[in-house]
Specification:
With 95 residues, this protein is mainly alpha-helical. It is 71% helix and 0% strand. It has one domain.
């Protein structure tokens, strides 16, 4: 049996989880919370701002545990790729 959670409720759960989980000690847990944020942001959810997502990604990249992250290569790539896309999108360089 699956439980379907509406997106606004899911974001509340994610926000609460991100406040409690320390990326330095719980890198594996935090990266999945962060990926859920990224997915919601990419789907255009209005309650997640560019600044908020950037701050969460920056906090993670400054403090993750290298021993834990080595098992999360695909997930780490998603986080770094999201950051690169945000930076490239913000610069909007025309050639």
């Amino acid at each position: 049996m699956y439980v379907i959670i509406e997106l606004p409720n899911l974001l509340t759960i994610l926000t609460d989880s991100a406040k409690v989980v320390d990326p330095a000690r719980n890198t594996a847990s935090y990266i999945f919370i962060l990926i859920a944020y990224i997915n919601a942001y990419n789907k255009g959810h209005k309650t997640i701002s560019d600044v908020e997502l950037f701050q969460k990604i920056s906090k993670f990249l400054k403090s993750f545990d290298g021993r834990q992250i080595r098992y999360l290569g695909k997930e780490f790539h998603k986080v770094v790729d999201a950051l690169v896309q945000m930076v490239v999108g913000a610069r909007q360089v025309s050639l």
